[in-house]
Amino acid sequence: MRKVSFAEFGGPDVLRLVDAEEPHAGPGQVRIAVRAAGVNPVDWRLREGQILGAHPVELPSGVGLDAAGVVDEVGEGVEGVAAGDRVFGEGADTYAEFAVLSAWARMPERLTFEEAAGYPSVVETALRVLREVGVRPGETLLVSGAAGGVGSAVLQIARDRGIGVIGTAGAANQDYLRGLGALATTYGQGWTERVRHLGRVDAALDLAGSGVIRELIELTGDPARVISIADLGAPELGVRFSGVAGNMPDALTEAVDLISRGNLRIPVEKSYRLDEAAAAHVDSRAGHTRGRRVLVV
């Protein structure tokens, strides 16, 4: 089978499309014929050699955590799923023609494989940071970097829970944020004053790592009510950095419920072929994404 791999840490040019042995489902796992794989910031962070405790890397390494596809092997002890089922979930080395998943759910009927591949890690992260920041119904959440995959999920899940949302993004994404139910404003000089004009801020999320932690603390009045998933320096200012994944099966169950009720939709901004994985990483690292980027197999 074909698989994206890297034998050394470095820039996107270290990625190679190679021939590899097919993986097989172990106990508690399923194998899928991959139709699409999600592209996440953690993918290029690991490729660069950033130390992320939850994801140790041994070289040579495959790439990718999220995927959607068709089950073709079911491991020992697995029930409720069979060969031929369309599923999406999280596993390892998903930039490949076949991948093993450790957590999965049946795809909602309304989703394509490309769309489904963009949900697992994004929804888990959104649910986790909403829980960790402690925002409650009736309060207002400020989301910095709101137009990307996690931001898109946070805005919609928060609104479903009765939480008001303010989102910051580039000028081109203002209408997109409003379409997700957020009050929207742009980055740049004077952005904190623009946020204040939109209303009170009870809690805040930094999803872009754009150096705004001090301002988010100022707006909320309490570093305990700010969470970052992108600024490794946040703890120096008393802000929690959230980087360890929570319960993926529960996240997938909630994602299916939200999607099925029409209360969660994350668009695919761009799709790439497996041999375009390096370009996908370049674009993901550059940011300014509206929704998700995925690889199509």
Automatic annotation (TrEMBL):
<dbReference type="InterPro" id="IPR013154">
    <property type="entry name" value="ADH-like_N"/>
</dbReference>
<dbReference type="InterPro" id="IPR051603">
    <property type="entry name" value="Zinc-ADH_QOR/CCCR"/>
</dbReference>
<dbReference type="Pfam" id="PF13602">
    <property type="entry name" value="ADH_zinc_N_2"/>
</dbReference>
<dbReference type="InterPro" id="IPR020843">
    <property type="entry name" value="ER"/>
</dbReference>
<dbReference type="GO" id="GO:0008270">
    <property type="term" value="F:zinc ion binding"/>
</dbReference>
<dbReference type="InterPro" id="IPR036291">
    <property type="entry name" value="NAD(P)-bd_dom_sf"/>
</dbReference>
<dbReference type="Pfam" id="PF08240">
    <property type="entry name" value="ADH_N"/>
</dbReference>
<keyword id="KW-0963">Cytoplasm</keyword>
<dbReference type="GO" id="GO:0005737">
    <property type="term" value="C:cytoplasm"/>
</dbReference>
<comment type="subunit">
    <text>Homotetramer.</text>
</comment>
<feature type="domain" description="Enoyl reductase (ER)">
    <location>
        <begin position="10"/>
        <end position="295"/>
    </location>
</feature>
<keyword id="KW-0694">RNA-binding</keyword>
<dbReference type="InterPro" id="IPR002364">
    <property type="entry name" value="Quin_OxRdtase/zeta-crystal_CS"/>
</dbReference>
<protein>
    <submittedName>
        <fullName>NADP-dependent oxidoreductase</fullName>
    </submittedName>
</protein>
<dbReference type="GO" id="GO:0016491">
    <property type="term" value="F:oxidoreductase activity"/>
</dbReference>
<dbReference type="InterPro" id="IPR011032">
    <property type="entry name" value="GroES-like_sf"/>
</dbReference>
<dbReference type="GO" id="GO:0003723">
    <property type="term" value="F:RNA binding"/>
</dbReference>
<keyword id="KW-0521">NADP</keyword>
